[in-house]
Each structure stands twice: as structure tokens, then as C-alpha cells.
Amino acid sequence: MSDAWILKNIGMDADELLRLKQISGLAELFRNKEFSNAQEI
Which class for 6: exposed (0-12), middle (13-18), buried (19 or more C-beta within 10 A)? Predict the structure, then answer.
């Protein structure tokens, strides 16, 4: 769906939509990546 459709039909404002896109994009970037334990020394 287009941004305009989402804003009109779901009732999100532009900032909410931007945050949703950012969160969704970040999740996709790190899909299937392995992470080390931050406490490893």
C-alpha cells in the first residue's frame, strides 16, 4: 500500500509511519545474522 493510503485508512501520522518503516527495515537488515555475546572478553 502507498504511504498516502496508510495515512488515510489506518490513521497513522507521517512520523508513526516513518518509525514503522525504520523498524521494519532494521529487522530485515539483520535477518539471519549471528551475534556474539557482548560480555565475551
Answer: middle
Per-residue pLDDT tens for 1-41?
A: 888 998 899 999 999 988 888 887 777 767 777 766 777 66
Q: Are 21 and 15 in contact (CB under 8 A)?
A: no
Element holding 13 (H helix, E strand): none
Cell 565475551 belongs to residue: 40
Q: How far is CA 9 from CA 1, 14, 18, 33, in A?
A: 10, 13, 16, 35
Name the grid cell of 2. 502507498
